[in-house]
Amino acid sequence: MDIVIDLLKAFAVGGMICVAGQLLIDLTKLTPARILVTFVVLGVILGVLNVYEPLVEFAGAGAAVPLTGFGYTLSKGVREAVAIDGALGIFTGGLRAGAGGISAAIVFGFLAASVFKSKPKT
To answer: For the segment 52-96, what is each residue's pLDDT rounded down to a tens digit?
Structure first.
């Protein structure tokens, strides 16, 4: 029964983040690229303020998977690297923390491009 509750929490929080993105698309003149960047920066800011971590603990993947979760991961990585490496961690922490997600996006993007053929729009 606990897994059902966890799934519902993840679905609700992830869904609310997606609704916020859809509202930004529908109600503003922001481009999708700017909305994506806004979500990543918002995740960094909320991570620095220690507001996003309780949300990740509550909703799990529902908060960690969207772009705000990527920003949170970057801020958390920088914080941990600064504690270990000092000022050099400012430059290396985000790369270390985000390397898994970035690598997965590259690999799966390559696999999808290898399997499917692109077609021009007509």
So the answer is: 999 999 999 899 888 899 999 999 999 999 999 999 889 999 889
Check if the beta carbon of residue 68 is closer than 8 Å to that of residue 40: yes
The answer to whether the CB of 77 falls within 8 A of the CB of 94 is: yes
Question: How do residues 16-60 score in pLDDT, each as one tens digit?
Answer: 999 999 999 999 999 999 999 999 999 999 999 999 999 999 999
- How many Å apart are CA 82 and CA 120, to the nearest integer? 47
Sign of the Cα torsion 33, 39, 44, 45 reads: positive
Neighbours of 27 (CB within 10 A): 8
Task: Look up the pTM and report it.
Answer: 0.79
